[in-house]
Amino acid sequence: MRRALVLLALAAPAPAFAHGAGSGGWHPEWSIWAPLLLFAGVYVAGFVRLSRRSAHGRPALRRGATLFGAGWLILAAATGSPLHEAGEHSFLMHMIEHELIMLPAALLLVLARPGAVLLWAFPTSVRGTFANIARGGRTFWDWLAAPVAATAVQGAVMWLWHMPPLFDRALDNEGWHIAQHLSFLLSALLFWWAVAHGRRTGQGLAAFCLFLTSLIGGALGALMAFSTSPWYAPYAALGLTPAGLSPAEDQQLAGLVMWVPGGAFHAAAALYFLYRWLKASEVSHALAAE
């Protein structure tokens, strides 16, 4: 563990070394980039159509587009850049990819509220069909997007996919790997939507769910960080990473990334909601005193 901490600084160049040791260069995967570009294209088309019809709402549209663009760029950097290929040679790089997907990328996409913009990319008849489907599934969505339920879903997804049998299968099979990343992204979008925009979400409940999530992810990261043997057979079989880390050290650093920066991200968001809750309570008490 101590040696792994010392070697953390050496892990930064791993993407470059990984490609030098592997295929000799970065080769973009169109199975990843095609959906990413389609997603961005649909948003741009919807943004153009909606901005033409909503003169007074353009500042809000531009703010949403800025948040969406930032989230999309982080998502593209995590899944479509050399970082993704580096994750094939280092669990640490793979963990960084996962954290980027589930934390800043998912949060920014949720804050952008892209639903209406994406719908406006389609003809009126298609938008009507989506609206009917949404109305029909409102009860289920309200239950699923409740903060506690969304927290449980994301926690289950996180722990189940990091169990060795499932994680090994994702490493060995591209279809399972795509399913893993989609699960991480969708569960994170659901969680951030529930705490930021949920219809039944109070500030205090949002703070509690964020603190709870920091503990759920932190516990898993701590188990990895203190483990002295690698959990995942495909990484263990690779031997030393391009940065010179043993499989156990590589896993320990990956656990630290999930435990410390990941936990700090959720804790910081929790403190923000806690501050807003206390501020609202203070204002409410002041008004009642008058």
How is this structure best described in words?
By secondary structure, this protein is mostly helical. It has one domain. 80% of the residues lie in helices and 0% in strands. It has helices at 2-6, 14-21, 30-53, 58-80, 82-86, 91-111, 115-119, 124-136, 138-144, 147-161, 164-172, 174-197, 203-226, 233-238, 247-289. Helix 6 (91-111) packs parallel to helix 12, helix 11 (164-172) packs across helix 12 and helix 13 runs antiparallel to helix 15 (247-289).
Overview features:
290 residues, mainly alpha, 15 helices
In short:
The chain has helices at 2-6, 14-21, 30-53, 58-80, 82-86, 91-111, 115-119, 124-136, 138-144, 147-161, 164-172, 174-197, 203-226, 233-238, 247-289.
